[in-house]
Design goal:
- A hairpin with a 4-residue loop joins β14 (about 165-170) and β15.
- This protein is an alpha+beta fold.
- Helix content is about 40%, strand content about 20%.
- The model has no long low-confidence stretch (mean pLDDT about 100).
- α1 (about 230-245) crosses α2 (about 290-305), α5 packs across α6 (about 425-435) and α24 packs parallel to α27 (about 875-885).
- Among the domains are: about 1-200, tricorn interacting facor f3 domain (Immunoglobulin-like), CATH 2.60.40; about 200-310, Zincin-like (2-Layer Sandwich), CATH 3.30.2010.30; about 320-445, Neutral Protease Domain 2 (Neutral Protease, domain 2), CATH 1.10.390.10; about 755-885, Zincin-like fold, CATH 1.25.50.10.
- It binds (3S)-3,7-diaminoheptanoic acid and zinc ion.
- Zinc ion binds near residues 307 and 326.
- This is Aminopeptidase N.
């Protein structure tokens, strides 16, 4: 915890480091009540930093300095200065060696940053600034060094000792201890350092790279999880192959290791050669992990693996450039998942997530550009904007340059910058240089925050056979940025004739038509594109594949949306038309609720969904997506003032109406798919995901009928399913139903069966946290007393408290403010225990401007109570103070 006033760090103040560290030699002596870290740093003056020998200031936090020597000369108290977060001394030559020994306390590190214990194992998390909690160092990504690491620990408790690179020596000591030395031949910034010591088992495999080198692959887990690693291993091999094929990138060490740990602040970490993963992002098998969990494991394994090139070989100059590695790597993992599964389903999932959560962030008090200008605590900037919007920005570059041009650009980027710490500008420059393109204006996507609005109007001239689209763009003000300049918005589009056929597209001035889908680069505040040779009034299909992260406005009628749902050649836009239709229908009903009128469900939505369900030739996963009404969170995001109760009532009423109108169809599709599930062993592949997705959404609609045959089918699915996807859906549906006896029995038997599996218990907590029936807060409070719950484990906090505040909106936003008070209480406790988790948990309180005056007051009061609650971590302080500003 800091006692100094939190400082604001600005991008514009960036300076190259005064000193460099060519070699880093670390020795760890791990004990139960303390650990010793010896560091030998081979350093020199940075020639790029100018003349003279300025004082050397190293980062360090919570370290107890035992000894310090400069070129083998022990330094005394007068030779250096130790402050709360630094150690300063005066070098006497341009090259020198610094030796330090510090004592640290991983056994009591609950922030899970630096070296800490997860259960009985030691592990590390250094990104972004955790290495300074391990030893005194230049803990910044532009200081890249070659590391050797020796780990020593008691042999019986810690038979496995791991670090980055290749093992080069090991030995035993007389006192029951042993040691291993690892050498990483690639220079790297300290944030990619990793160490693991524990009693672990491993699953082994190998991969032969495109140049014929054999790489040993190992996944280390606690012994009870050894049967849940195969899916991650398969995903790793697919990722290695894919990166060779899609980007020409080959793996570079002789060994690649993944370690699963239970206590982890996020999903996983790409440490060089030694990825450390939240166990939830590694472990998956049919009985314990859902289809969604399988896909998440595949995506995260790929993401961390891809970082080996986008992040590790080419790293970030400073943390303002975080999206350089994260945006690009999210884009790469999305391409990979699209190739491995259904591209349209993947796109729909990503866009729904972006529009619900990133758009909300972009409209809230923490809004920042993809490359932020300043921060207090960098941990707060691992955001949806840096990751997901960052990936959209890379995707737009690909859309503008084409796939081939993009690949040329990425080749040049890797060739130019291998082994360097670079900036977003360097990335864009490589894209420009490889294509002879000018992306100057495009780069505003990196510097301007907020979600642009793009409103479109049309004009058809039957006599001239011309059709014009006029685009008007604007972007709302965000903190620190009141005025925005025009973005370059790639609009992929097509035109449909009255039969639903695509019209060949020819712009005024062109000699011939160019395909039926094309990209218009909208780069002015207002701009018109005119198509010629258009012999009937067309219907435009705009922003195909969601070609830019904007809010598109076009005055489609409901009949036009139904037409697009049927005929658009772009799968994404067929889904999008369905979503827009649902939004229009639901918004009408929200208004009816607010005016105290009886709710009326527009039957056109029911009929549109009926035709989806009737057509058995359609991709079942897409039908399931179509049937999923926009979430309450998304309806909140697009509301001016969100009326939580009206949104919930309207959506539930629509679900009821759809359920009763389409009962027979749901029942037919459900039974057919359930029968196949019954007869088919679980397979984690797209077509099986699709079948189960439709089966499960059908079940959730069917249960709204309360018919005994459905309840019996649901209980049967719960009890008999051989996989977690079917079992958990049945449980969730029972929990949200009024069938108390069946619900209680299912919850109890599930908990009894899975009590020793923490990841499955997380799902048990989440399902209950999401129960929207009255009394949600009390249920969550009671569950916090359950023996399987602890605030010390981030997965538990997310599964119960996070799920409640983010997904159970009617209960969390209770009009008396009890939900807000509860969340603030947890944040105050977690602020001391784990600041990163505390600050993430806070997000639902920061969105107070979205709600009515009563709720606004209650939410603000809780933010103020947090601010006054005592010493705040910089993480929590930054989010609370910015959201009250
Ligand atoms: N790079 C890490 C995130 C580290 C977060 C530090 N607070 C995981 C990832 O994006 O791959
Ligand atoms: Zn990443």
């Amino acid at each position: 915890m800091r006692t100094e006033q939190p400082k604001v760090i600005h991008l514009k103040d960036y300076q190259v480091p005064d000193y460099l560290i060519d070699e880093t030699h670390l020795t760890f002596e791990l004990y139960e009540d303390r650990s010793l870290v010896h560091a030998q740093l081979v350093m020199r003056r940075n020639p790029e930093a100018g003349a003279g020998l300025p004082p050397l200031q190293l980062h360090g936090q919570d370290l107890e300095l035992i000894s310090l020597a400069l070129n083998d000369r022990q330094l005394g108290l007068g030779d250096y200065e130790v402050a709360e977060e630094s150690l300063t001394l005066q070098p006497d030559a341009a090259s020198f060696t610094l030796d330090s020994t510090v004592v640290i306390h991983p056994e009591s590190n609950t922030a899970l940053e630096g070296l800490y214990k997860s259960g009985s194992m030691f592990c590390t998390q250094c990104e972004a600034e955790g290495f300074r909690k391990i030893t005194y160092y230049l803990d910044r990504p532009d200081v890249m060094s070659k590391f050797t690491t020796t780990v020593s620990a008691e042999k019986h408790a810690y038979p496995i000792l791991l670090s980055n690179g290749n093992p080069i020596a090991s030995g035993e000591e007389d006192d029951g201890r042993h040691w291993t030395t690892w050498e990483d031949p690639f220079k790297k910034p300290a944030y990619l350092f990793a160490l693991v010591a524990g009693d672990l088992w491993c699953v082994e495999d190998s991969f032969t790279t495109m140049s014929g080198r054999d790489v040993a692959l190992r996944i280390y887990v606690e012994p009870e999880n050894i049967d849940k690693c195969q899916h991650a291993m398969d995903s790793l091999k697919k990722s290695m192959k894919w990166d060779e094929d899609a980007y020409g990138r080959e793996y570079d060490l002789d060994i690649f290791m993944i370690v699963a740990v239970n206590d982890f602040n996020m999903g996983a970490m790409e440490n060089k050669g030694l990825n450390i993963f939240n166990s939830s992002a590694v472990l998956a098998r049919a009985e314990t992990a859902t289809d969604a969990a399988h896909q998440r494991v595949e995506a995260i394994v790929a993401h961390e693996y891809f970082h080996n090139w986008t992040g590790n070989r080419v790293t970030c100059r400073d943390w303002f450039q975080l999206s350089l590695k994260e945006g690009f790597t999210v884009f790469r993992d999305a391409q990979f998942s699209a190739d491995m599964n259904s591209p349209t389903v993947k796109r729909v999932e990503d866009v729904s997530y972006l529009r619900t959560h990133q758009f909300a962030e972009d409209a809230g008090p923490m809004a920042h550009s993809v490359r932020p200008e300043s921060f207090i605590e960098i941990s707060n900037f691992y955001t949806l904007t840096v990751y997901e919007k960052g990936a959209e920005v890379v995707r737009m570059i690909q859309t503008l340059l084409g796939e081939e041009g993009f690949r040329k650009g990425s080749d040049l980027y890797f060739e130019r910058h291998d082994g360097q710490a670079v900036t977003v500008d360097d990335f864009v420059k490589a894209m420009e240089d490889a294509n002879g393109a000018d992306l100057t204006q495009f780069k505003r996507w990196y510097s301007q925050a907020g979600t642009p609005r793009l409103s479109v109007s049309e004009q058809y001239d039957a006599a001239a056979k011309t059709y014009s689209l006029t685009f008007r763009q604007s972007c709302p003000p965000t903190p620190g940025q009141s005025e925005k300049l025009a973005f370059v918005i790639p609009v992929s589009m097509g035109l449909l004739d009255g039969q639903g056929n695509e019209i060949a597209l020819r712009l005024q001035g062109e000699d011939a038509s160019v395909g039926t889908t094309r990209v218009l680069a909208v780069d002015q505040p207002e701009q018109t594109f005119t198509f010629v040779g258009v012999s009937e009034q067309p219907l435009p299909s705009l922003l195909r594949g969601f070609s830019a992260p904007v809010k598109l406005e076009f005055p489609y009628s409901r009949d036009q949306l139904m037409f697009l749902m049927q005929h658009d050649s772009d799968g994404f836009n067929r889904w999008e038309a369905g979503q827009q239709l649902s939004v229009q229908v639901l918004q009408d009903m929200i208004g009816q609720h607010q005016r105290g009128e009886a709710l009326q469900l527009d039957q056109r939505l029911v009929e549109a969904l009926r035709s989806q369900l009737e057509d058995e030739s359609l991709d079942q996963a897409m039908v399931a997506e179509m049937l999923s009404l926009p979430s309450e969170a998304y309806l909140t995001e697009i509301s001016e003032v969100a009326d939580v109760d009206a949104i919930h009532q309207a959506r539930e009423f629509a679900r009821q109406g759809i359920s009763s109108a389409l009962f027979d169809l749901f029942w037919k599709r459900y039974q057919a798919n359930r029968e196949i599930s019954r007869q088919t062993p679980y397979v984690a592949q797209a077509e099986h995901f699709a079948r189960r997705a439709l089966q499960n959404i059908a079940l959730s609609y069917l249960m709204l009928s309360g018919k005994p045959e459905v309840v019996a089918a649901c209980v049967d699915q719960f009890e008999e399913a051989d996989n977690m996807t079917e079992r958990l859906t049945a449980l969730a549906v029972l929990v949200n139903s009024g069938f108390e006896a069946e619900r209680d029995k299912a919850l109890a038997s599930f908990a009894e069966h899975f009590k020793d599996n923490p990841l499955v218990m997380d799902q048990w907590f989440s399902v209950q946290a999401g129960n929207t029936q009255p009394g949600g807060l009390e249920r969550v409070q009671q569950l916090m007393q359950h023996p399987a719950f602890t605030l010390k484990n981030p997965n538990k906090v997310r599964a119960l408290i996070g799920a409640f505040a983010n997904q159970n909106l009617v209960n969390y936003h209770r009009a008396d403010g009890a939900g807000y008070r509860f969340l603030a209480d947890q944040v105050i406790v977690l602020n001391k225990l784990n600041p990163q988790i505390a600050s993430r948990l806070l997000a639902p309180l920061t969105r107070w401007r979205k709600y009515d005056a009563g709720r606004q007051g209650l939410m603000k009061a809780e933010l103020e109570r947090i601010l006054a609650s005592g010493e705040l971590s910089s993480d929590v302080y930054e989010v609370v103070s910015k959201s009250l500003a």
